[in-house]
Amino acid sequence: MTFSKNHRILITLVVTALALTHILWDHFNGGIPTHYLLHDKNLPGIPNWLGALALPFFTWFLLYRIAKRVNSSDSKENLKLVVLRFLAALIVSIIIAFCFTFTIDIIDYIMLIIFALAFIFPLYKSEFLLGWVLGSAFTFGAAIPMGFGSLFALVCFVFYLIGRFIKKLLGIKV
User: Fold this and answer.
1) Residue 34: beta bridge partners?
2) Cα(129)–Cα(149) distance, integer angstroms
3) Where are the beta strands (DSSP E) in the chain?
4) How does DSSP assign 135-152, residue by residue?
5) Which of 89, 111, 124, 134 is the most exposed place for a label (fewest CB within 10 A)?
6) Do residues 42 and 56 make contact, with C-beta atoms less than 8 angstroms apart?
7) How many CB atoms lie within 10 A of CB 131?
8) Is the Cβ–Cβ distance between 16 and 84 less than 8 Å?
9) Burial class (CB within 10 angstroms; exposed 0-12, middle 13-18, buried 19+) of 86
10) Burial tier of 72 (Cβ tally within 10 Å: 0-12, 13-18, 19+)
11) Side-chain half-sphere of 23: how many Cα atoms within 13 Å?
């Protein structure tokens, strides 16, 4: 199954509608919140409306990358695998946002597990990043998950390369 431009348009429109609805709800229920870097009010703040403007473009870009990879003739990946990866990242980011909101102290352990898995699985792929951002955007706004998620994907990419190098050194088929 291919991932068409119509799919990308539809998903981007849904994300845009959800982001704008969230901003409108915030506006009429106490004001649009500002999220501060490292949760410190002395550091620069990022208002939710800024992330809501950037989120549709970010979504479109990641969906373009996913479609390009899935639709390529030599791709070993199918759309079902991409959706499963997206859902896994979405669920994990929702769990982390829930734990952050209710101050449940297991986020560090979850992050350690993710870093360990990054040596084995390609957690840097666009579908993981999109799931991460969309799952945590309600709690943290969109801008902070986009920035942190992008850096996180870069670290996962480096870890995956290290993992592949170690497998080759040990003679394990990559």
Assistant:
1) 47
2) 6
3) 34-36, 45-47
4) HHHHHHTTHHHHHHHHHH
5) 111
6) no
7) 24
8) no
9) buried
10) exposed
11) 17
Q: What is the residue whose two structure tokens read 């040990």?
A: 170
- The whole-model pTM stands at 0.91
> In which element (H, E) is residue 35 found?
strand 34-36
Domain ranges of the chain: 5-170
The pLDDT confidence band at residue 1, using thresholds 50, 70 and 90, is low
3-state secondary structure of 36: strand
Location of structure tokens 């993992």: 163
Question: What are the C-alpha distances in Å from 60 to residues 8, 126, 127?
Answer: 7, 11, 12
| Rounded Cα distance, 123 and 168, in Å | 19
pLDDT per residue as tens digits for the range 46-77: 898 998 899 999 999 999 999 999 998 777 78
Please report, as a single letter, which amino acid is at residue 87: L
Name beta bridge partners: 36. 45
